[in-house]
Amino acid sequence: MALFVHKYGGTSMGSVERIKNVARRIAKWHAAGHKIVVVPSAMSGETNRLLGLAREISPFPDVREMDMLASTGEQASSALLAIALQKEGVSARSYAGWQVPVNTDSSYTKARIVSIEGTKVQDDLAQGKVVVITGFQGVDPEGNITTLGRGGSDTSAVAVAAALKAQECLIYTDVDGVYTTDPRVVPEARRLSQISFEEMLEMASLGSKVLQIRSVEFAGKYSVPTRVLSSLTDPLISLEIEMSSGTLINFEEDGKMESAVVSGIAFSRDEAKITVLSVPDTPGIAHSILGPVADANIEVDMILQNQSVSGTTDFSFTVNRNDFKHTVDVLRNQVIPAVKAKDLAVDEKVAKVSIVGVGMRSHVGIASLMFKTLAQEGINIKMISTSEIKTSVIIDDKYMELAVRALHKAFDLDK
Ligand code: ASP
Ligand code: MG
User: What's the pTM?
Assistant: First the structure.
């Protein structure tokens, strides 16, 4: 018997019927003698509905009130789940974030967890209760309710698991694990039974949307064994089968000797590329260009600059497509006049495709197989960036799916 944290996403909590199924599943774990803490999301669509109501009233609603509002979604689903558990004959209790408490800083709508007080929860568990803790929310030092950013209940669950030293954090969701790539793009994509923490971190930051990136960072920081698995299976399937299903994010340094060199292909469509043309190749130029962009709170992803033989050079970088117009404004108004650049060249519709694998550390020629594969498909590479365990390319957005399919095949991920 051990302590497990279960997290159920919005789809898993999406209706009264589904909440009853979640309760049946938890009752099964509880009956086997395990201590269970559950962290639910709001019912699917609820957070959007609430935020939409506020925006109908005001285009720029106060962020403190937005957190007050958004946190109610999880409060409702948690209470409903506790009621469903009690109906199953399981003694259960739900707590809002501030009651635990889950302590956060005061950055409304994107707060960070500072600490979690586990005493009350441990007491309830010792009495045989299932404890339900609202995902996505916490409380700041002044007692204000905060939320952790969209998708934040993954992070809540992993943080609770870390604080309670749970044996495993199980993230139940509407997919049955982490795939070699998105099966909607490549039907042959396979579920990975294990993925290393570093690979998962890359996959999450490169556009695989299975887990919120901050939850993966948290899992890494506290070495929380985390499993992604389906909530849509029969809730009464054998515990043994359930405990080994899905994808386990592991922290083993060694192991995985037999595993593939490349584990997965991530992609993101929402990229835009901007080139500042003909800037003087002098010290401080990168800062003069990207300083004002950072000051405008715009996150820059890939950056490319060559040294020049002629005294001027082109400086390219990518941003999220949502930030494209804002970035162009900052460059035109502040940067171009200041650095005396010639002009901008823009590419609003690019995509990033990345191959990820810890095996890349010890194998050469991986990136070159990637480039060869893209060349054979006639796909032009606009930018390249590499790290120890990934290679990313920026390509025209209309070739993205073709690139992902070709790479999936070239690296034998369908086998
Ligand atoms: N309900 C929140 C959202 O929709 C948090 C979560 O689901 O993880 O973003
Ligand atoms: Mg989610």
Answer: 0.87
Indicate the top mutation candidate among 11, 43, 46, 47 to test ligand 1's pocket, ranked by most ligand atoms within 8 A of CB. 47
pLDDT tens digits, one per residue of 227-265: 999 999 999 999 999 999 999 998 875 555 446 789 999
Ligand 1 binding pocket mutation candidate from 43, 150, 215, 231 (most atoms within 8 A of CB): 150
The mean pLDDT of the chain is: 94
Mean pLDDT for the stretch of residues 314-326: 96
297: pLDDT strictly greater than 50: yes
- The mean per-residue pLDDT over the stretch 266-275 comes to 95
Neighbour-count burial for 184-219, b at 16+ CB within 10 Å, e otherwise: ebbeebbbbebbbbbbbbbbbbbbbebbbbbbbbbb
Instruction: Kindly list the distances between the CA atom of residue 380 and the CA atoms of 231, 397, 399, in Å, as whole numbers in the listed order.
Output: 41, 11, 9
Distance between start and end Cα atoms, the chain: 37
Q: Closest Cα partner for 262 from 175, 182, 196?
A: 196
Nearest atom in ligand 1 to the alpha carbon of residue 154 is 8
Q: φ, ψ for residue 158 (rounded to 5)?
A: -65, -40
CA–CA separation, 226 vs 208, rounded Å?
A: 16
Both tokens of residue 76?
Answer: 């409702």
CATH class of 3-250: alpha beta
Distance CA 91, CA 114 (A): 29
With 60 as the cut, is the pLDDT of residue 86 above it? yes
The stretch 266-293 carries a mean pLDDT of 94
The per-residue pLDDT for 257 is: 45
Q: Which CATH architecture has domain 264-410?
A: 2-Layer Sandwich (3.30)
Angle between helices 46-57 and 63-87 (to 10 degrees): 150
Out of 122-126, 192-196, 207-211, 253-257, give the one with best mean pLDDT.
Answer: 122-126
User: What does the domain layout of the chain look like in residue ranges?
Assistant: 3-250, 264-410
Distance from the alpha carbon of residue 182 to the mean position of ligand 2, in angstroms: 16
Of the candidates 125, 185, 132, the one whose C-alpha atom is nearest the C-alpha of residue 157 is 132
3-state helix, strand, coil in the chain (%, to 5): 40, 25, 35
CA distance 317 to 300: 7
Environment class of 381 (CB within 10 Å of its CB; exposed 0-12, middle 13-18, buried 19+): middle
